[in-house]
């Protein structure tokens, strides 16, 4: 078993310090080796599906690979949803799946399936550990495989890699037997950043300068201070609008001197829904520059597919590139930060190591281990006056300063300024429209307004996880309080509901000194209750649960909402409440069903001393649908240029 016992040592030497394992017999040699290694933090999660998403959350938060260990048979299949999400979200996971020896496959032996290449096209690679390692060459092979797997998982674009480990009995060391770790030879991947020749960069810069209608659109992207500053400089240099959904993390304040007048635009989910031909024509780009991954805003996505630019450049250092808008003309193989800095004639020095790069460029959140949770107290500006009546929304705080309608530098090219102005005007209109809409009096209690109030109370430095379905859509429309450091996470690689809670749990475990808030709906929450089925404290976790007792999104989609089968076969109405779940797993429970109750609960819910807590906001699905349809109708009729 020495080759198996060396696996944790290789992981530790190559930067993997966290392992999530699920108990089993066939995986016992791996379990014992990881558990006894002094450099590995091991967490046990019985449900493999939840375990894999918890590992994904750990890797997301720490920006480095996390390992998983499971037993043979269908256990590994339960990793599949998280594997697919990690693949499309480019999160590094290394999956050690214990297996029977090859001669016992397809021989009706228990807990035996075909595990080779278990995840197919949704893993970056699959390796098979040697079943017998007595020969020196087999030991060299085993060590090399683990090094290669970890390196592959972390190479850009990062992703999941499987190592299938056939194991023979006996699985357990003798009583009192000590395990030896190493010495082992590892192969390290040294990070590098592609650079284009100076002549090519000059050509690209000239193209941007010559083109009057240039638009930058950001897809999902981790928070990155250098990128925010490079984008600001690029926008100021070329007078270009920069647009990004909430999951692009462009809303964050990059530095103390960050010019808010140049902040990227984020209200496109509002103004792109305006059926105004003149506006759509005014916003049409000639050159579209994109980076990052998926978009939430369907309205923006459809608009760019219809208003096809003459040129579309996508900035990505390596890997396959999607032609999301059916207009791709050029792939620029650079890091986005390097591209925007180079085209702004700003020097950016590559960091010496990937770890230093992540530490410098990620949004600072303070120490992440052995720290008493801080930052849950809402700031004074986020406290909203309580409502006097149970069905009347309190007056909210401003959504943010209106966007300037003129560029702050006087030397803008007239054609570029003419293209920039309608983008800024639309953003300003959308901000003011949302402010007026949210504060309208005598509202029925509804989840759209309730979410707004919850977002206003978010502590600074929060890692906000948005579950799929309506939670992520509502948040993308409403945004987060301006100037507050709230980093956004969402499983938009596959956009499934199956592991949203577990991913947030992983983040809370990864950074115990940082507030982690999950905004989720009832279907996603109850589907993933096993996220809490473990023995690790999470005093920094807050769950905001929108319970309308149905899959409420289907009342908002044309098609299912017009069908007589809506309630039974699409909404799948359910009577569940979260109180029992909160009690079972030691979460402090808050229940509200009026604006007054919500405003009373929020300050206590987010207080540091509250500990792990769940706030259940109960609303009526039909009322939510009517209120949101009212919002959409006003968007279509209220725009003024």
Automatic annotation (TrEMBL):
Q: In which pathway does it act?
A: Quinol/quinone metabolism; menaquinone biosynthesis; Quinol/quinone metabolism; 1,4-dihydroxy-2-naphthoate biosynthesis; 1,4-dihydroxy-2-naphthoate from chorismate: step 2/7
EC numbers listed for it are 2.2.1.9
Q: Where is the Thiamine pyrophosphate enzyme N-terminal TPP-binding domain?
A: 3-107
Supply the enzyme class, top level.
Answer: transferase
Q: Where is the Thiamine pyrophosphate enzyme TPP-binding domain?
A: 502-617
Cofactor comment: Binds 1 thiamine pyrophosphate per subunit.
Can you name this protein?
A: 2-succinyl-5-enolpyruvyl-6-hydroxy-3-cyclohexene-1-carboxylate synthase
Species in which this protein is naturally found: Hymenobacter canadensis
């Amino acid at each position: 078993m020495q080759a198996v016992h060396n696996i944790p040592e290789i992981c530790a030497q190559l930067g993997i310090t966290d392992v999530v394992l699920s108990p089993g017999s066939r995986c016992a040699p791996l379990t014992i080796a990881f558990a006894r290694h002094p450099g590995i933090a091991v967490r046990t999660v019985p449900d493999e599906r939840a375990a894999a998403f918890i590992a994904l959350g750990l890797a997301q938060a720490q920006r480095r690979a996390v390992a998983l260990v499971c037993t043979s048979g269908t256990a590994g299949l339960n990793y599949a949803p998280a594997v697919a999400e990690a693949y499309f979200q480019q999160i590094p996971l290394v999956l050690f799946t214990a297996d029977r020896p090859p001669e016992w496959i397809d021989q009706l032996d228990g807990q035996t399936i075909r595990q080779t290449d278990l995840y197919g096209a949704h893993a970056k690679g699959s390796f098979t550990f040697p079943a017998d390692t007595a020969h020196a060459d087999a030991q060299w092979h085993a060590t090399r495989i683990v090094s290669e797997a970890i390196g592959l998982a972390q190479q850009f674009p990062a992703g999941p890699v499987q190592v299938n480990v056939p194991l023979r009995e006996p699985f357990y060391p003798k009583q009192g037997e000590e395990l030896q770790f190493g010495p082992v030879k590892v192969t390290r991947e040294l990070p590098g950043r592609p650079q284009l020749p100076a002549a090519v960069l000059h050509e690209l810069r000239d193209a941007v300068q010559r083109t009057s209608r240039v638009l930058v659109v950001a897809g999902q992207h981790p928070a990155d201070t250098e990128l925010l500053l490079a984008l600001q400089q690029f926008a100021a240099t070329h007078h270009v609008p920069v647009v990004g959904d909430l999951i692009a993390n462009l809303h964050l304040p990059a530095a103390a001197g960050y010019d808010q007048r140049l902040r990227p635009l984020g209200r496109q989910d509002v103004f792109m829904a305006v059926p105004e031909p003149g506006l759509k024509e005014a916003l049409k780009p000639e050159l579209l520059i994109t980076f990052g991954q998926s978009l939430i805003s369907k309205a923006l996505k459809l608009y760019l597919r219809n208003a096809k630019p003459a040129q579309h450049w996508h900035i990505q250092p390596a890997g396959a590139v999607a032609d999301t808008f059916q207009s791709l003309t050029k792939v620029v193989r650079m890091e986005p930060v390097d591209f925007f800095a180079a085209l702004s004639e700003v020097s950016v020095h590559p960091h010496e190591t990937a770890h230093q790069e992540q530490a410098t460029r990620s949004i600072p959140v303070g120490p992440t281990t052995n720290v008493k949770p801080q930052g849950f107290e809402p700031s004074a500006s986020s406290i909203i006056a309580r409502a006097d009546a149970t069905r009347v929304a309190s007056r909210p705080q401003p959504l943010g300063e209106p966007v300037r309608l003129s560029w702050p530098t006087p030397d803008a090219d007239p054609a570029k300024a003419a293209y920039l102005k309608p983008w800024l005007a639309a953003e300003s209109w959308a901000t003011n429209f949302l402010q007026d809409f949210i504060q309208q009096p005598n509202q029925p209690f509804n989840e759209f307004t309730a979410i707004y109030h919850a977002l206003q109370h978010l502590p600074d430095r929060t890692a906000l996880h948005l579950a799929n379905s309506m939670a992520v859509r509502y948040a993308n429309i409403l945004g987060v309080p301006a100037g507050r450091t709230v980093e956004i996470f969402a499983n938009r690689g596959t956009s499934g509901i199956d592991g949203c809670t577990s991913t947030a749990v992983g983040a809370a475990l990864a950074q115990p000194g940082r507030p982690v808030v999950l905004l989720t709906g009832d279907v996603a929450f109850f589907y993933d209750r096993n996220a809490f089925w473990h023995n690790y404290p999470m005093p920094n976790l807050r769950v905001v649960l929108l319970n309308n007792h149905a899959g409420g999104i289907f009342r908002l989609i044309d098609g299912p909402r017009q069908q007589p089968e809506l309630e039974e076969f699409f909404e799948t109405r359910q009577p569940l409440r979260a109180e029992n779940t909160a009690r079972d797993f030691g979460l402090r429970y808050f229940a509200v069903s009026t604006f007054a109750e919500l405003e009373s609960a929020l300050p206590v819910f987010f207080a540091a001393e509250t500990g792990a807590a769940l706030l259940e906001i109960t609303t009526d699905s039909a009322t939510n649908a009517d209120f949101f349809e009212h919002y959409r109708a006003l968007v279509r009729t209220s725009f003024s240029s």
